[in-house]
Design a protein that fits this description.
With 184 residues, the chain is of the alpha/beta class. It contains five helices and six strands; from the N terminus they run E-E-E-H-H-E-H-E-H-H-E. It has helices at 64-74, 79-100, 125-134, 146-150, 157-166; strands at 9-12, 24-28, 34-37, 103-106, 140-145, 170-174. The termini are far apart.
Length: 184
């Protein structure tokens, strides 16, 4: 239906239970501007199934019982199982996207590392390469988010942009600046 109305690129993510996660949406900078921030130490040792947590970007409609059910469903899902599930999804959706003239663009995990024991797999160049090989199709693309990928010191964003642009596998980009603070 989206193809019928002219939509040519669909962005999606494959982050279990929680989408993007931040600890603050209005961190004040010296120049008066504000930004999003993630302080890992604020979440260290926290358990969303036990602790009262109300983080920015969280779906406030989740009740503790909903979260418990979701965590129970993901209990047996490690990184390899998540890769298997992603492959299953892509093998079914990409042929349909090709037929409809649509590019599917996966958004990187945000943050690009596990949170609350839940795996994250769309995190770095090696994993982006693995993702693109799951279903090698021009319709299987990346939302190359410089913010999500850029908050990992090991990701060389300019190199990744050149590489995936040359491969014509960037569906679109999110361009954001990132400052990695001394504490990570």
């Amino acid at each position: 239906r989206l193809g019928e109305v002219g939509v040519k690129c669909i962005c999606y993510n494959f982050m279990p239970v929680f989408d993007w996660t931040r600890t603050q949406l209005d961190k004040l900078a010296e120049d008066g501007s504000t930004s999003l921030v993630y302080y890992g130490e604020q979440l260290d040792g926290k358990d969303p199934l036990v602790d009262d947590m109300n983080l920015p970007g969280w779906d406030a409609s989740y009740q503790k019982e909903d979260l418990k059910r979701l965590f129970e469903q993901y209990k047996a899902v490690d990184s390899e199982k998540l890769w298997e599930n992603l492959g299953y999804f892509l093998e079914r959706i990409i042929p349909v996207a090709e037929e409809c003239g649509i590019n599917m663009a996966i958004h990187p995990d945000d943050p690009p590392y596990p949170i609350f024991g839940l795996p994250r797999i769309i995190t770095c160049e090696a994993n982006l390469d693995r993702f693109l090989k799951l279903v090698d199709s021009p319709a299987n693309t990346l939302c190359l988010c410089t913010g999500s990928l850029g908050c990992a010191k090991t990701n060389d964003i300019p190199k990744m942009v050149r590489k995936y642009a040359e491969m014509d596998r960037i569906g679109f980009m999110h361009i954001r600046n990132v400052l990695i603070m001394d504490d990570g």
